[in-house]
Amino acid sequence: MITERKTGDGGNVAIYSDITDLKKREEELTTKSNALEEINKRLKKAQEQISKYIDPNITEKIFKGEFSAELSHKRTKLTMFFSDIKDFTQFTDASDPEDVAKLLNEYLGEMAQIVRTWGGTIPQFTGDSIYAIFGAPDSKGERGDALACLRMALEMQVKMKTLREKWWNQGIQFPFDIRCGIHTGMANVGNYGSEGFMEYSAIGLNTNLASRLEQACQPGEIYLSHTSWALVNDEIPCEEIGTIEVKGFHYPIQTYRVLQHDVEMAPES
Fold first, then answer.
1. Domain range summary for the chain, segments of one domain joined by +
2. CB 114 within 8 A of CB 157
3. What's the CATH number for 70-262?
4. In angstroms, rounded to a whole number, what is the distance separating the alpha carbons of residues 229 and 150?
5. In this prediction, what percent of the chain has a pLDDT beyond 90?
6. Integer distance in angstroms from the first to the last C-alpha of the chain?
7. Which helix (H) or strand (E) covers residue 73, if one does?
8. Averaged pLDDT, 153-180
9. What is the pLDDT of residue 114?
10. pLDDT exceeds cutoff 80 at 61
11. Res 134 pLDDT > 90
């Protein structure tokens, strides 16, 4: 390729340049760019698939390099949530396995989406039971975590009514009701298991208390411990319903019921 440029005295200078190398480099850059784009697509798809097995809060941090897959845990203040479907075992005993699986998958899918909407982390599903934590791996502060958990539970109860009506119209007359227990306290949160397989969870005495509140809860209700109540009672109306005994605690646990009909449903803050 030949180009001409004017000189200072009005003359012309011929400049010879070979663009073969430039074109070659351009083609190489295009190839690398396409390869990187393909790799990014595969990584995004992998993250989406992994998020169906591991909570998205965890997978997102793994892909960002903010989470280390090592056996470790720390003491953290959490708001812990447990729920289950009252007498679900009776439904499974009286129904075809295929119908049970379809209904359970729909229920857990809807509830998991609500947990994620409010920023909770799901360490595990156990049958029809859901265990969720607020405050790890990210926290909105003690009050923020407790309020998010309460709002989540309220939305779950509303969704359960919608699902119950839908299933009734499909010919399922079982009276589905969920029970929810919520408690705020210190817990050991982190990775548990072995070097070859581990799960992110929170354990400890306060976790047991949250589970015990769920077991004591009446169908269709949400029960809180006094600790959680103290963080949310200015926004979430509740009533005191007495105490429960919990193994490991040397005093009765004051319990509160959320007055769901008096709560103004609000979007996530």
1. 70-262
2. no
3. 3.30.70.1230
4. 10
5. 49
6. 63
7. strand 73-85
8. 92
9. 96
10. no
11. yes
- CA 113 from chain center: how many Å? 7
Q: Tell me whether the omega of the peptide bond preceding residue 219 falls within 30 degrees of 0, making it cis.
A: no
For residues 104 and 128, is the Cβ–Cβ distance under 8 A? Answer: yes
Q: ∠ CA(51), CA(111), CA(189), 5° rounding? A: 60
Q: What Rg value do the Cα atoms of the chain yield, rounded?
A: 28
**What type of residue sits at position 188?**
N
DSSP, collapsed to helix, strand or coil, labels residue 64 as helix
Residue 88: CB atoms within 10 Å: 20
Say how far apart CA 153 and CA 81 lie, in whole Å. 8
Put simply, whether the predicted model's pTM sits higher than 0.90 gets the answer no
What is the C-alpha to C-alpha distance for residues 112 and 104, in angstroms, rounded to an integer? 12
Distances in Å between the Cα of 143 and the Cα atoms of 102, 146, 240, 252, 253 are 37, 5, 20, 23, 20
Average pLDDT over residues 241-248: 90
